[in-house]
Amino acid sequence: VKLSPSPPVLQFGFITIFVAAFPLAPLFALLNNWVEIRLDAHKFVCEYRRPVAERAQNIGVWFNILEALSHLSVIANAFLIAFTSDFLPRLLYQYKFSNNLNGYVNFTLAYAPLNYTDYPRCRYKAFRDNDGTYTLFYWELLAVRLGFIIAFEHVVFFVLRAIDWIVPDVPESLELKIKREHYLAKQALAENQEALLQATRPLDS
Question: In this structure, are residues 119 and 53 in contact, taking their beta carbons and an 8 Å threshold?
């Protein structure tokens, strides 16, 4: 029985790239993985033959795929937060006009031009003037959004690099055990070489 790593990688991509759109996705993925692990354990114990273990140094090319997905998820979530939420428009409106957001909803609604509708008071959500062209606030908001995306990416990548540098790939206790095993293996090999030399000396003489 050989398990393919592609379904977990697809799940990782979905829950990281679209986590800003559906924050409960990691929780459901955790519950799904817990149930699937228990079911797979029951299958391996009760229904399948014992699989042949194969030694592997790492997960191979899948590590690069997961790293690329994590970088893509940071960029996608930055765009989702910047362009689909009201966080940045509210922040810019508080900075420019009113700290307590008085008149914010009315400010975000534009009047439709008369040549596009029969209703003179038709309004829609956009930062446009009466002629339908973008206002100065729209371009300022666009610059703020792009700046937020760049800042968000740099902050997240810096935190990732800091965690990667602080947390070692191999725990210190495990590294000590590995060094101890290497030392014992070298000592056993040296003793075996001495025993072989002593066993072969009478034959040479």
Answer: no
User: Rounded to an integer, what distance in angstroms lies between the CA atom of residue 53 and that of residue 2?
Assistant: 10
- Judge whether residue 143 has pLDDT over 60: yes
Alpha-carbon distance of 116 to 119, in angstroms, equals: 9
Entry pTM: 0.70
Residue with tokens 């008071």: 121
* pLDDT value for 4: 58
Question: Which among 127, 147, 129 is positioned nearest to 137, based on CA atoms?
Answer: 127
| pLDDT of amino acid 153 | 92
**CB contact at 8 A, 18 and 69:** no
39: Cβ–Cβ under 8 A, 6 or more apart, which residues?
A: none
**Tell me: the pLDDT tens digits for 104-138?**
888 888 887 776 656 667 888 888 887 778 889 99
Q: Round to whole Å and give the CA distance between 13 and 68.
A: 10
